[in-house]
Amino acid sequence: MILDIHAHLTPEKLDGRAIISLSVGDEDFQFSPLLKEGSTVPLSIGLHPWHVDEGRTAQARCDLISWLSLPQVVAVGEAGIDRLRGGKLELQLAAFEMQARLADELEKPLIVHCVKAFDEVIRLHKTRFPHAPWIIHGFRGKAEQARQLLREGLFLSFGEHFNEETLRLCPLDHLLMETDESTTDIDQLYLRAASLRGMELEDLRKRVNKNIKSLVLTYE
């Protein structure tokens, strides 16, 4: 049962319950054993906005086309826009749009990293009308910001640091959970979330797992 939509690689997260995020900008990316034939650990692969620089986008697209064809790769990203860190904004936008197009072409969900750039993300979503679902990972925003994203049809993934009001209002069919880089166990996040929503823990686990299955139809 996949319960964690977005996690970074640590040994304890290789239990099949997490989608592991890899970036083509990491120096040791291509040597990861998770990319080898026969690996069954579900992955997302993208060019993180922190790794965007002049000239990298074109090469990254070629690399991504190759890696995203692997059966264990179930999502594109994390891709996105970060106004506080990473390459120039125009380069980040170009890399993000490139990966959004790939997600559409490959019919895989897009994991979105967004820091102080939700207006740009919403604008791009409105402009592109993507077929592939977009998932805002590690969402910490307030209720009104969440409502704007939900009206656009985006999914919200909640990690260790989330706004409690926002988590309570998020429709169950657009709610996801993640650990990202946190050392907190995913089960603890589900306990907190279930308590806040007044739900049975197992009911929330099953609902989120159902959402994940609906998003990553290519992963069997």
CATH superfamily: Metal-dependent hydrolases
Helical element count? 7
- Give the tally of β-strands: 8
How far apart are the first and last residues' alpha carbons, in Å?
A: 11 Å
Largest sheet: 8 strands, parallel
Radius of gyration: 16 Å
Oligomer: single chain
| Helical amount | 25-40%
What is the approximate shape? globular
Report on the architecture of this protein:
By secondary structure, the chain is of the alpha/beta class. The chain has a single domain (4-215), classed as Metal-dependent hydrolases (TIM Barrel, Alpha-Beta Barrel). Helix content is 38%, strand content 18%. An eight-stranded parallel β-sheet has the order 1-2-3-4-5-6-7-8. Helix 6 packs across helix 7 (201-215). The longest helix has 18 residues, at 89-106. The model has no long low-confidence stretch (mean pLDDT 93).
Features:
single chain, 220 residues, alpha/beta, TIM Barrel, eight-stranded parallel sheet, 7 helices, 18% strand
Helix and strand topology:
Layout: E1 4-7, E2 18-23, E3 43-46, H1 56-67, E4 73-82, H2 89-106, E5 110-115, H3 118-128, E6 134-136, H4 143-151, E7 155-158, H5 164-169, E8 175-177, H6 186-197, H7 201-215
Helix pairs in contact: 6-7
Short description:
By secondary structure, the protein is α/β, with parallel strands linked by helices. Helices cover 38% and strands 18% of the residues.
